[in-house]
Amino acid sequence: MKHVTILALHDAAINCVDSCFQILTRVNDFLRYQGKASFYEVTIAGLQKTTSLNNGLYTIHTTAGIHGIAHTDVIVIPITCGHFPESVKRNAQFIDWVRAMYKNGTEIVSLCVGSFFLAATGLLHHKECAVHWAARNEFSAMFPDVRVIDDRLITDADGIYTCGGAYSYLNLLLYIIEKHLNREMAVLASKMFEIDMDRSSQHPFVIFLGQKHHADKNVLEAQQYIEQHYEQKLTVEAICAKAGMGRRTFERRFKKLTGNSIVEYIQRVKVEAVKKQLEQGRKTINEIVYEVGYNDINAFRDVFKRCTGLSPLEYRRKFGV
């Protein structure tokens, strides 16, 4: 049997806490139906008997205080809502306990942007972490020593599990069930809760917004120029010339502030434009690709698949009207 502690963090998403509790306790029911013993003992633990969530909209009643738990096999860190730096501060009293438990062999399961709290414990130092695509830039700015992963939905290393994407935590729970028990039980949970087990990447869901939370006027102007003229045949040399800087210097500066090389930024902007057309329009894929400045359809398909994990046709089938 494994003892699981779901943390009742301040600002935790109530649906996330409840889903974890329901799925893991339901696994016990599946086992009992098969004539087997329960596997999970699930506790919801906090700093006091009740914790207010979502600015007082919900109140959760805990089943234990964290300081009364001397050992637990698994800690689940739920999604937290609101301003991340403030949320980390409000939950600072949990940090030492989580560190101590991990040091004694406890597994840590972090759900989506619960990774902000996990990173604040220092346990992700120089480790991989999957982060929701919309929070990636803010996470990287707060925790530059953490290796952010965006090409996989789940990371698993040294007893720490993370996932990117809001409801992808359901996939992480299935992953944990399979690891603790077996594939058969994970598949059964997938069927009973109707969770798609095939998801492995955030890429199809990402909306490229660029990284503009900086004060470099030249880089911002280059970003805006690319976004306003994406349908043209843009070159790195022309972008650098407009900025009035040498290519090597400006490329280094651009990548440091945006997280993308100039070529990558141009590609991502073009891909985003194509995605919108595929979602809403009736033009052929070839027409759309030519309109964003590509003459080589196959080359664009490779770029599109690298960014989204799907071919343009697969993307249209998935998201088109």
From TrEMBL:
Key words, A-Z: Transcription, Transcription regulation
SMART domains given in the database record: HTH_ARAC
Signal sequence interval, chain numbering: none
Keyword Transcription part of the UniProt annotation: yes
InterPro entries given in the database record: Class_I_gatase-like (IPR029062), DJ-1/PfpI (IPR002818), Homeodomain-like_sf (IPR009057), HTH_AraC (IPR018060), INH-QAR (IPR052158)
Residue ranges annotated for the HTH araC/xylS-type domain, each copy included: 220-318
Keyword Transcription regulation: yes
GO MF terms held by the record: DNA-binding transcription factor activity; sequence-specific DNA binding
SUPFAM superfamilies attached to this UniProt entry: Class I glutamine amidotransferase-like (SSF52317), Homeodomain-like (SSF46689)
Record PANTHER family: ARAC-FAMILY TRANSCRIPTIONAL REGULATOR, TRANSCRIPTIONAL REGULATORY PROTEIN
Listed name of the protein: Helix-turn-helix domain-containing protein
Lineage: Bacteria, Pseudomonadati, Bacteroidota, Chitinophagia, Chitinophagales
